Write the structure tokens for this entry.
Amino acid sequence: MVKDMAASPMATATRSVFERLAIDSIPWEPYRDREGREQDGVQQKTVFMVGGGKGYTGLFRLQPGAELPVHVHRTFEHHAWVVEGGCVAGDHYLRAGSYEYVPAGAEHGIDRAGPEGCTLFCLMLRA
């Protein structure tokens, strides 16, 4: 039996399935850094919270040319897949289908989104 997640896309059950419409219904929010400052042209939405503060999954959407300044997640490893568009991250141009792994404590950022913008699916797990 598959549970209907349309009403509760943030479920934390042992197994959770989120249909596209449920994910689409989660509102995009402005991305804020640790000091609470909004980053122009960057939005995010949290899809799933792993219990006990162990991590989360979410989407990031960058408008064309937007950037995420270099930052560090000291206790979380970061996995990111480019879903749509592309971006420059360090010495690499990541396009749809690309994957990036960043270990806890490593600096990373997005120098700029490509001309079509960029949507990333991210998984953050406590190291």
Remarks:
- The two ends are 33 Å apart (CA to CA).
- Residues 20-25 form the longest helix (6 residues).
- DSSP finds one helix and nine strands in the chain.
- Confidence is low (pLDDT under 50) at residues 1-8.
